[in-house]
Amino acid sequence: MMTLTQKKQEFAVFCIESVAARMGVTGAEIYAELYRLGAVEPLLFDSYEVLHTQSKERIVDEVMQVMREWKEREQHGRS
Question: Is 1 exposed, middle or buried (0-12, 13-18, 19+ CB in 10 A)?
């Protein structure tokens, strides 16, 4: 039986690889961008209870939207 931590890790990999497939890039690239934005923990692990009940399409949409919003916020913070 998997622990909750293991389930969250497996879910994070699923999310990263699913986003990568939709964007046509590697999972490593998506992970690097999420890590750079500081989104791995709050988006993929802390939101596990809510996100893991959603469809794959909804999860990918959510992750991509958060990435866009955090990039925009980052860019506005620099100007």
Answer: exposed
Q: Which domain holds residue 12?
A: 4-78
**Is the CB of residue 44 less than 8 Å from the CB of residue 64?**
no
The 3-state secondary structure of the chain, one letter per residue: CCCHHHHHHHHHHHHHHHHHHHHCCCHHHHHHHHHHHCCHHHHHHCCHHHHCCCCHHHHHHHHHHHHHHHHHHHHHHHC
pTM of the model: 0.90
Q: How many domains are contained in the chain?
A: 1
pLDDT in tens, the chain (79 residues): 999 999 999 999 999 999 999 999 999 999 999 999 999 999 999 999 999 999 999 999 999 999 999 999 888 876 5
Distance CA 6, CA 37 (A): 23
